[in-house]
Amino acid sequence: MKPFTFERATSPEQAVSAFAAQPHAYFLAGGTNLVDLMKLGVEAPGHLIDVSRLALDTVETAPGGGLRVGANVRNSDLAAHPAVRSDYPALAQALLAGASGQLRNLATTGGNLLQRTRCPYFQDLSAPCNKREPGAGCSAREGATRDMAVLGHSEHCVATHPSDMAVALAAYDAEVELLGPEGTRTVPAAAFHRLPGDTPERDTVLRPGELVAHLTLPASPAGARAGYRKARDRASYAFALASAAAVLALDEDGTVRHAALAFGALAHRPWRARTAEEVLVGTRADADTFARAVDAELAAAEPLADNAFKVPLARGVAVRLLTGLAEPPQPAANRSAGV
Amino acid sequence: MIPQRTATSSTLTLHVNDTAHTVTVDHRATVLDVLREQLDLTGSKKGCDHGQCGACTVLLEGRRANSCLLLAVAHDGAHLTTVEGLGDAEEPHPLQRAFEERDAFQCGYCTPGQIVSGVGMLCEAAEGHPSHATPGEVLQRSTGEPAELSRAEIRERMSGNLCRCGAYPHIVAALEDASGHVGPRSGTAHPASGPASDRDSDRDSDRDSDRDSASDAAPAR
C-alpha cells in the first residue's frame, strides 16, 4: 500500500473543499470496500478525507411518508430502523441479504452505493482491466464469465454492480442527494449507476469531488407490498447471482395498479425493469402475467459463455417474488419474499 | 490557500479494554495491526486480512467489526473491546465458558473472532436487530423486543465468521447456551438491567426464561 496523508472532515462542505485542495484525494467512510481495495493495490489514494464522523447519520421520516437517510447511516442501523422495517421491507431485506453482521455494522449507506465491482479481474493487478486501467482490455470477457453481466454489458466491460441495497432503492424510486463544488444536486437512484459503454472506469454519474450526502425515499404507493429476493451460491454471506426487488400494488379486482421491479447482479448497475413494468400495470396479477412481464424484460439478455443460467435464474427469482407479493395472506407472502 | 498535508503517520489514542493507549501509527496500519504489533494484544487474529473470515473481530463502541478493515488513523478516541477484554481463564465471559463446555473449536484460530462476534451478535439480538433469517411478518412488526434466536437465526447472524475446521454445530450450541447472558448496549431501545459483574451467575439456569432478564447488561466488562 502506498503511504498517504489523512484528515478528518469537519463538515460536508469542508470535505468537498478539502478534496479539491489535495492531489488524488478519496473520501473514507466505513472503509469496508476502500481499505480492502487499497490492500489489493487497486486503489492508491494520496490523501484520505475521513467523512465517517460527519453528522450525516440520521434517518428522518417525512410527515406525509417518505424517508431521508444520511449517507453515514450504517447498513445494520438502516435495516433495523422501525420505519424501514415497516414501510420499506424490500430495503430492509436487501440490506440484511448483504455482507456479514460485522460488515453491515461498518458499511455506510453512501459507501454501499459507491462500492466497486467484485469482478475478480478488476481485483487482480496482473489481469488487464478497462475499469481499473482504461484501454488495457477486458480479461473477463474471454475469461470466467459465470458471475458476469447478462444485460447492458459492452465489449469493454462485463462487470456487475454488487450491491443488494441499491437494487431495492431503484425499485422504491429513491433519489441520491449529492454535494459538490458547484452545490447540491439530486439524481434518481436508478440512474446513479451507469452502464459501462466505452468508459467502464466510471461506475456512477458522480462528478469528481462530489460527496453522497443523503438518500431520499418517497412514500410507498397506497396498499403497496414489497420484497427482495436473492439467489446465491451459499445461504448467507455471498454476492448475488441474481436478485430482484419489487414494489407491487393491486386494485381490489386484482389488477396491477403500481409495479416497480429491479434486478441485481445482472448488469453494471441495478437494472430497473421498465419493460416488465409496462406489461404488468393494468393487467391481472397472476403467474402468467408475471412470467410474461419478466420474459419481456429478459428478452434483452445477452449471456456470455458461462452465464446463460443467470437468465432463467433471474426469471425464477422475479416471478416467485411477484407471486408472493400478490398472494392474499400478507405475512406468509412476505415470508416467501424475504427468503 | 489550504496548506498541503505531508504527514503519513499520526499520533492517536485508542481505548482498548478500558485502557487508553497513545500510539504513533503509519496511516496504512489497521486497528488489527496496532493491537497485535504495538499493544501486544494477539488474541485478535489476522486470517484473511480482507474482511472475509471474521478472525479479527473486535467490538468497536460495543458493536462487532472487522478490525482488519479499520484504519487506525480514522479511529482516534475509539473504544474497543478485544477477546482479552471479555474475560480470562480465572473469570471467563459466559460465552467463553460456553465455548469450552461445548467444545466449540478444534484448532482454535478462529475462536477469538467467533467469541467476540458472538458477544456482539447476542447484543444485536437483545437490541431487537433483525436478520436475513427473520420471518417477514416479524421483520415488518419492529417492536424493539429482543430477537428470538433459533438455530437458523444464529447461523445466519454468525455467517461472517468462518471456521475451516467446521466446528459450526458446537459453536451454534455454545451461542444458544450463552444467549441469556448478553444484553443490549446501554442507551439502546430495549432496557438494560443488572451490572456486568453478575455475568458468571446463573449460567445453568434455563436459557429461555433467563433471556429477558439480561443479567449481563454490558457486552463486555
Automatic annotation (TrEMBL), chain A:
Record's signal peptide: none
Residue ranges of every copy of the FAD-binding PCMH-type domain listed in the record: 1-222
Entry keyword annotation includes tRNA processing: no
UniProt-listed SMART domains: CO_deh_flav_C
Entries under SUPFAM superfamilies matching the protein: CO dehydrogenase flavoprotein C-terminal domain-like (SSF55447), FAD-binding/transporter-associated domain-like (SSF56176)
Gene Ontology MF terms in the entry: FAD binding; oxidoreductase activity
Keywords: Oxidoreductase
InterPro entries: CO_DH_flav_C, CO_DH_flav_C_dom_sf, Diverse_Substr_Oxidored, FAD-bd_PCMH, FAD-bd_PCMH-like_sf, FAD-bd_PCMH_sub1, FAD-bd_PCMH_sub2, Mopterin_DH_FAD-bd
A Pfam family: CO_deh_flav_C
UniProt-recorded name of the protein: Xanthine dehydrogenase YagS FAD-binding subunit
Source organism per UniProt: Streptomyces qinglanensis
UniProtKB/TrEMBL annotation, chain B:
Lineage top rank: taxon: Bacteria
Record has Metal-binding as a keyword: yes
PROSITE patterns linked to this entry: 2FE2S_FER_1, 2FE2S_FER_2
All copies of domain 2Fe-2S ferredoxin-type, residue ranges: 10-86
Record flagged with keyword Iron: yes
Gene Ontology terms for molecular function: 2 iron, 2 sulfur cluster binding; metal ion binding; oxidoreductase activity, acting on the aldehyde or oxo group of donors
Region: Disordered, residue numbers: 129-148, 179-221
Biased composition (Basic and acidic residues): 197-214
Membrane spanning residue stretches: none
Annotated metabolic or biological route of this protein: Alkaloid degradation; nicotine degradation
Pfam families reported for this sequence: Fer2, Fer2_2
Record key words, sorted: 2Fe-2S, Iron, Iron-sulfur, Metal-binding, Oxidoreductase
InterPro entries documented for this protein: 2Fe-2S-bd, 2Fe-2S-bd_dom_sf, 2Fe-2S_ferredoxin-like_sf, 2Fe-2S_ferredoxin-type, 2Fe2S_fd_BS, Aldehyde_Oxdr_Iron-Sulfur, Beta-grasp_dom_sf
Protein name: Xanthine dehydrogenase YagT iron-sulfur-binding subunit
Organism name: Streptomyces qinglanensis
